[in-house]
What we know:
196 residues; alpha/beta; Helicase, Ruva Protein, domain 3; Dna Topoisomerase Vi A Subunit, Chain: A, domain 2; 2 domains; two-stranded antiparallel sheet; 8 helices; 6 strands; globular
Amino acid sequence: MDTPLDRLAEQFRRLPGIGIKTARKLAYYMVQQPPEKIEEFIAAIRDAKQKMCFCSICFNLSSQDPCPICSDDRRDHGVICVVETPQDVSAIERSGDYHGLYHVLQGALSPLDGIGVEDLRIKELLQRLQNTEVQEIILATDPDVEGEATALYLARLLKATGIRVTRIARGLPMGGDIEYADEATLAGAVANRQEM
Length: 196
């Protein structure tokens, strides 16, 4: 039987990282809320959808164009950190240690999923580099097969520009145990060691 509750749970299940049990839990929770709370929730979704856009320079999500990062003269305009998603920008910004600009690819190369070079914001990155003072590109794609393939492709492509291309280091997370780390993580940690 297809009830309104089932349809609501199905909508939640379409969200990334939400399984059937969590979707049902969220659906039950929502129908038990007072109408004004539901209206606030709906208004927040509508407001975000209507007022958020992609920055025309870096393709990060923002409520203004260009975004506050691209518009900030205090940031280092000589460095661009290339990431896969707007969520990656948020994560790096939370660290508080990076003060350059960003370029969001809107994904990573994944031939099995039908995502090729033309599906990413690579052409826009190259155009951006033509008339700028950029001295370094930091490739901060995910350390998975797709992220590594994307970083290798970009490194080869950007070599011709003469701009310094670097890759973020890989290693052990803070608070992690060496004995539980996989071989690739340990290899990255040893290869990217720093002098103390």
